[in-house]
């Protein structure tokens, strides 16, 4: 029996419970791929926009930064834009911080969206596999009771082996799902930490430029 035939026989031996397990696996994989692509794109766009606007911020070219961030879909662009919009009216550092924090509260849920479903699917598929195993064992013991004693041991052994296929398949899916969930969570945290760092850098830059501007005005008098 070659590998392909072994895999086909494995799935056939799982019985009907393999179908919900396959559906859960497909949904989990779809979410994992979508989140991986989304988070990679978000991180790449954030780095690109921040590299573009940081020199402008350091030189106090706020109008140009406002123009760039207003047209940007990157998370970091939106947060900086919140701060620049708030700067158009007089306010303290805390007011700018609050305005940018509002932007964070809008963006972070988008980054974390759907990722928790992967951990949920890992738990659910384990339970579905366990249920398939229990049902398989019940069927096996029921069948053993109806055959002659000479065939009982062989039939019971075969039934247990088939029933265990459901749990084995569930664990083969659940363990990678838990690892993928941890990986995506770490990736999301990395992006959020980057946004927080950019926000602090922006606030410090604005405060420093305001202090320099006030000092120049005072010396000119």
Q: Which features would summarize this protein structure in a list?
A:
221 residues, mainly alpha, 7 helices, 0% strand, rod-shaped
What can you tell me about this protein's structure?
This protein is an all-alpha fold and 221 residues long. Helices cover 89% and strands 0% of the residues. The protein has helices at residues 3-14, 18-58, 62-70, 75-87, 93-112, 115-144, 149-220. The radius of gyration is 29 Å and the shape is rod-shaped. The mean pLDDT is 86.
Taking all residues together, what is the mean pLDDT?
Answer: 86
Number of DSSP-assigned strands: 0
Q: Termini, distance in Å?
A: 93 Å
Estimate the global geometry from the Cα principal axes. Answer: rod-shaped
Major sheet details: none
List the secondary-structure elements in sequence, H or E: HHHHHHH
Strand content is under 5%
Q: What kind of oligomer do you see?
A: single chain
Q: State the helix count.
A: 7
Low-confidence spans:
none
Helix-strand category: mainly alpha
Helix content: over 70%
Our Rg estimate from Cα atoms comes to: 29 Å
């Amino acid at each position: 029996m070659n590998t392909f035939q072994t895999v086909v026989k494995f799935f056939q031996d799982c019985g009907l419970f393999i179908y919900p397990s396959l559906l859960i696996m497909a949904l989990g994989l779809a979410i994992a791929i979508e989140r991986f692509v989304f988070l990679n794109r978000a991180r790449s766009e954030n780095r690109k926009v921040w590299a573009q606007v940081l020199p402008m911020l350091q030189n106090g070219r706020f109008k140009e930064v406002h123009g760039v961030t207003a047209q940007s879909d990157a998370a970091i662009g939106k947060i900086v834009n919140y701060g620049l919009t708030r700067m158009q009216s007089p306010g303290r550092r805390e007011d700018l911080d609050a305005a940018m924090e509002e932007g964070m509260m809008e963006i972070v849920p988008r980054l974390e969206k759907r990722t928790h479903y992967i951990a949920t699917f890992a738990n659910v598929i384990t339970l579905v596999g366990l249920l398939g195993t229990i049902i398989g064992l019940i069927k096996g013991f029921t069948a053993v009771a109806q055959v002659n004693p000479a065939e009982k041991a062989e039939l019971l052994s075969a039934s247990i082996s088939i029933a265990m296929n459901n749990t084995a398949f569930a664990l083969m899916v659940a363990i990678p799902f838990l690892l993928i969930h941890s990986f995506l969570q770490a990736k999301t945290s990395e992006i959020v930490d980057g946004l927080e760092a950019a926000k602090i850098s922006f606030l410090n830059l604005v405060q420093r430029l305001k202090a320099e501007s006030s000092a120049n005005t005072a010396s000119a008098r």
